[in-house]
Design a protein that fits this description.
Order of helices and strands of chain B: EHHEHEEHEH
Number of strands of chain B: 5
Strand content of chain B: 15-25%
Largest interface: A-B, 58 and 47 residues
Radius of gyration of chain A: 21 Å
Structural class of chain B: alpha/beta
Oligomer: heterodimer
Shape of chain B: globular
Strand content of chain A: 15-25%
Distance between the termini of chain A: 52 Å
Largest sheet of chain A: 3 strands, mixed
Strand order of the largest sheet of chain B: 2-1-3-5-4
Number of helices of chain B: 5
Structural class of chain A: alpha+beta
Distance between the termini of chain B: 24 Å
Chain lengths: ~425, ~170
């Protein structure tokens, strides 16, 4: 008998089930009558798992939400709880958290560009089909991704489920010799990252201009990762605490995911939104690269997302190099929190976009309530809007397979979080 | 790096923890304990393409993961042939699975000299946070098969590894 049954928890989700990325289209007379996108969303389960857990367990638990973005979940959670505990992290912690995040951006963006976006734009079915023809391209992507992982591991102990971060800082300060070794690898990767920008800028992408609202963090002096106000190109400028006054989630009947709207409208988060709202926060050399790309900035074309990711890889490598160059062991790698009850929210910039957390904590530090709004749910409505707009511009008399390929390419721009799903987009088309 | 490696793949969700449970079972194995100088055990969470880094430098890699198939949950399937593994496409780097990583390794010439995949068929409708009964029951069976594989194939792999280290390699 399975002795685990006594603590079995039933949750309404189906792991590894066909069609967890599912699109339903109803077409009539060449028009899209109905369009529904369904994407499974793991963070929602964790909101329940966290109830009753201690504040000292929070970062270890949320790191498990996402195998690619554990740092993002840890950083949003840590900052939110530090707001509750009124703990001001040290300058060393602030720097190391940025380094931590740099590693994750590099790893995530590299994987996306080389394994997903590049095959789409080069006309290959997937990265496996592309690899024999573009082995150096794939190897560069894997090199950058491994480097990103190792930056995360430098501070987190391991790249998946990093265990190094805690409320108030990190459990240990890495060895300065390890920082020096990592710095050499980062510096060696910079020319590759520059070549990647040039390569992305030269790739012919579909010209699909759209109007959309970009939302991202903005910091007074740097390209925002861990800190900043939530802004948009439509005039929004708020602290993370005010998120719920402007952003509202609602359940759609056909999806387990919640759709998040800004003032009742879809919006975009992610690398393109970040870049659109923070062009002046880029180092001049990267800004010049962008303007030399021949594309308009701020961009209204979601297919510029690949170039945006390449820019952010370079930015993250530059920042990582600067932080590693200045690395030193602090007097203490963490400041202990004065635990007490309270509620607070915070947002950081996950590779895929704004990641907002809110927690209510009891006097003993136990989590009473957790709310996590990941970038993928914030992009759901925007993805549907994009699909409707972009597919409508195509010849809808194409066969279902061609429609599916186009839809997949559009959705891949957003790199949605489809954890545990390893299947094609399931497309159902009804032609009336 | 150790020449023999067992990689247990998984995620925190239900039966997808299978690979981690097998690694935990092998951690308790006296056969493995006697061979820790040559055998490395690793539990990996959704490693996607980073799996290629974990294949490097090994003479034999054994992988264990939950799989979806139309046979009964708890059934143990074994693979040594890339062609036998279905490689679906993906919308997301999150959806980049074991099959795709092995295919990519094969195309880039980065598969280890020997590899073996043990897949345990999961119950796709199991909605629990823990293993289903069928998959739970399969854990010690898979671990036992891996032990035997290490015992037999591992010895050959080590011999090849030693010969390669001395500048020679036996005929295939």
């Amino acid at each position: 008998m399975n002795p685990d049954r006594h603590i079995d928890i039933k949750v309404p989700f189906l792991p590894r089930v066909e069609g967890e990325g599912a699109l339903e289209l109803t077409l009539q007379d060449g028009q899209i009558e109905n369009l529904r996108l369904r994407i499974f969303e793991p963070p929602r389960l964790f909101e329940q798992f966290l109830r009753g857990r201690g504040q000292d367990e929070l970062l270890d638990i949320v790191a498990r939400i996402c195998g690619i973005c554990p740092v993002a979940y840890q950083m949003s959670a840590a900052h939110a709880l530090e707001r509750i505990f009124e703990l001001q992290a040290s300058a060393w912690t602030r720097d190391m958290r940025r380094l931590f995040y740099c590693g994750e951006w590099i790893e995530s963006h590299s994987l996306h560009i080389h394994l997903l976006a590049a095959p789409d734009f080069l006309g290959y079915r997937d990265a496996i089909s592309m690899a024999p023809h573009e082995p150096e391209l794939v190897q560069r992507g894997l090199m950058l991704q491994m480097l990103g992982n190792d930056i995360v591991r430098f501070l987190g102990g391991r790249s998946v489920h990093p265990v190094g971060a805690c409320i108030g800082g990190f459990y240990r300060a890495p060895d300065p010799a390890a920082a020096t070794a990592l710095l050499q690898r980062v510096q060696a990767a910079l020319p590759e990252a520059e070549a990647l920008i040039d390569w992305c800028a030269a790739v012919a992408v579909p010209q699909a201009q759209q109007d959309f609202t970009s939302v991202a963090l903005r910091h007074p002096s740097e390209y925002a990762m861990n800190e900043g106000r939530i802004v948009s190109n439509a005039g929004l400028d708020i602290d993370a605490e005010a998120f719920e006054q402007h952003f509202a989630e609602h359940q759609v009947a056909y999806s387990t995911a919640l759709h998040c709207l800004l003032h009742g409208q879809p919006y975009l988060v992610g690398p393109l939104a970040r870049l659109n709202l923070n062009l002046d926060r880029l180092p001049e050399v990267l800004r010049n690269k962008l303007y030399a790309s021949g594309r308009d900035w701020p961009s209204r074309n979601l297919f510029d997302s690949m170039l945006a990711r390449a820019i952010e890889i370079h930015l993250a490598l530059r920042d990582a190099a600067a932080l590693l160059r200045e690395y030193h062991r602090p007097h203490s790698p963490r400041d202990l929190p004065q635990v007490h009850a309270g509620t607070a929210a915070h947002a950081t910039e996950a590779p895929r976009g704004l990641l907002w957390h809110r927690y209510t904590v009891a006097e003993d530090g136990r989590i009473q309530q957790a709310r996590i709004v990941p970038p993928t749910s914030q992009n759901q409505a925007r993805i549907e809007q994009d699909l409707r707009t972009t597919l409508q511009q195509l010849d809808l008399s194409q066969n279902d397979e061609q429609l599916r390929q186009h839809a997949e390419m559009i959705i891949r721009n957003y790199d949605p979080c489809i954890s545990c799903s390893t299947h094609f987009l399931e497309l159902k088309v009804k032609r009336l | 790096m150790k020449p023999l490696r067992v990689l247990g793949l998984g995620s925190p969700f239900g039966d997808d923890q299978l690979g981690w449970r097998v690694i935990a079972e092998l951690e308790r194995s006296s056969l493995i304990a006697d061979r820790r100088d040559t055998v490395e055990l690793l539990a990996l969470d959704r490693p996607h393409a980073t799996l290629l880094g974990h294949l490097a430098g090994a003479e034999l890699v054994i992988l264990v993961d939950a799989v979806v198939s139309d046979v009964a949950p708890g059934t143990i399937l074994e693979y040594q042939d890339i062609e036998a593994i279905d490689t679906p496409g993906s919308l997301s780097t999150h959806g980049w699975g074991l099959a795709a990583s092995l295919q990519l390794a094969a195309v880039l010439g980065q598969l280890p000299p020997r590899w073996h995949l043990f897949g345990v068929v999961i119950d796709p409708h199991h909605g629990g946070a823990l293993l289903s009964d069928a998959v739970f029951a399969a854990v010690p069976l898979v671990a036992s098969r891996i032990e035997q594989h290490l015992l037999h194939e591992g010895a050959t792999a080590l011999q090849h590894s030693l010969l390669a280290g001395h500048g020679g390699r036996p005929a295939a």
